[in-house]
């Protein structure tokens, strides 16, 4: 069981917008603005898409945006494209003594 | 261009040991913290361990503490993960990843292709 809760799957049609939620607790997502999002295509390494809740690394499309409210973070992808189909993982710093960072269980995005 | 190339994975019996390596190039290795992150087959990501750019600060998940040791050799631009007392639940693809800063921020902006560790008798 992952520390952060994500929906197992979401879907959308090309051109549409989708949002993936990432629910944590007051010990992780709710405690810090240190939330990040990763995209992972099948058989490939993860790629950082969002850091510090809403910042995009250089080279990441502005179709990707992040936000946070309380203990829930969200990733929104606008203008869906076929290449956005992938698994998405959220991550957060944590006050837990057992680890430094926690991940969500991942969300499979299907572009219809 | 940043390149991270892991090696050292393979089949090991429960209780055995392996040492993973990650050869880095394309950036000033000693200026960045590094992490190991693993992914069990068909499962999500799990952070395993991190080391500061200087190598002076080490961090571990409880699941591996006391069994795994992270280290780095700046003269060889290489990151290591010594894994002892391996268990079935350690079976995963192990990725090395470069951090944003010299102290771990856990924002991992470059990743290797991963190396598979299989623990089975």
Helix content of chain A: under 10%
Q: Would you tell me the structural class of the helices and strands of chain A?
A: mainly beta
Helix content, binned percent of chain B: under 10%
Structural class of chain B: mainly beta
Report the average pLDDT across residues of chain A. 94
N-to-C terminal Cα separation of chain A, in Å?
28 Å
Overall number of strands of chain B: 11
Q: Assembly state here? A: heterodimer
Average pLDDT rating of chain B: 96
Sheet with the most strands, sense and barrel status of chain A: 6 strands, mixed
| Major sheet description of chain B | 7 strands, mixed
What portion of the residues of chain B fall into strands of 2 or more residues?
over 45%
Helix and strand sequence of chain B: EEEEEEEEEEE
In percent, how much strand structure appears in the residues of chain A?
35-45%
Give a quick set of tags describing it.
heterodimer; A: 112 residues; mainly beta; six-stranded mixed β-sheet; 9 strands; 43% strand; globular; B: 121 residues; 11 strands; 50% strand
Written overview of the protein:
The complex is a heterodimer of chains A (112) and B (121). Chain A has strands at 9-12, 18-23, 35-40, 47-50, 64-69, 72-77, 86-93, 101-103, 107-111. Helix content of chain A is 0%, strand content 43%. In chain A, strands 1, 3, 4, 7, 8 and 9 form a six-stranded mixed β-sheet that branches. Chain A has a three-stranded antiparallel β-sheet with strand order 2-6-5, with no helix packed on it. By secondary structure, chain A is mainly beta. In chain A, a hairpin with a 6-residue loop joins strand 3 (35-40) and strand 4. Chain A has no helices and nine strands. With 121 residues, chain B is mostly beta strands. Chain B contains no helices and eleven strands. In chain B, strands 2, 4, 5, 6, 9, 10 and 11 form a seven-stranded mixed β-sheet that branches. The N and C termini of chain B lie far apart (40 Å). The model of chain B has no long low-confidence stretch (mean pLDDT 96). Classes of the chains: A mainly beta (112), B mainly beta (121). Chains A and B meet through strand 7 and strand 8 of A and strand 5 and strand 10 of B.
């Amino acid at each position: 069981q992952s520390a952060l809760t994500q929906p197992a799957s979401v879907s959308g049609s090309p051109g549409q917008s989708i949002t993936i939620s990432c629910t944590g607790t007051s010990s992780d997502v709710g405690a810090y603005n240190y939330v990040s999002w990763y995209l992972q295509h099948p058989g490939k390494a993860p790629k950082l898409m969002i850091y510090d809740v809403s910042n995009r690394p250089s080279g990441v499309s502005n179709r990707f945006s992040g936000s946070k409210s309380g203990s829930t973070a969200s990733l929104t992808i606008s203008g869906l494209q076929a290449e956005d189909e992938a698994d998405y993982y959220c991550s957060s710093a944590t006050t837990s003594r057992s680890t430094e960072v926690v991940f969500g269980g991942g969300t499979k995005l299907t572009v219809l | 261009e940043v390149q991270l190339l892991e090696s050292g994975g393979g089949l090991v019996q429960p209780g055995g040991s392996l040492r993973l390596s990650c050869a880095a190039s394309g950036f000033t290795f000693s200026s960045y913290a590094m992490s190991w992150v693993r992914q069990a087959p068909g499962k999500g990501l799990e952070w395993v361990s991190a080391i500061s750019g200087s190598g002076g600060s080490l961090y571990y998940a409880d699941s591996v503490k006391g069994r795994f040791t992270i280290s780095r050799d700046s003269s060889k631009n290489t990151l290591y993960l010594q894994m002892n007392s391996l268990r079935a639940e350690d079976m995963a693809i192990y990725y090395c990843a470069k951090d944003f800063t010299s102290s771990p921020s856990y924002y991992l902006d470059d990743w290797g292709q991963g190396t598979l560790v299989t623990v089975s008798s």
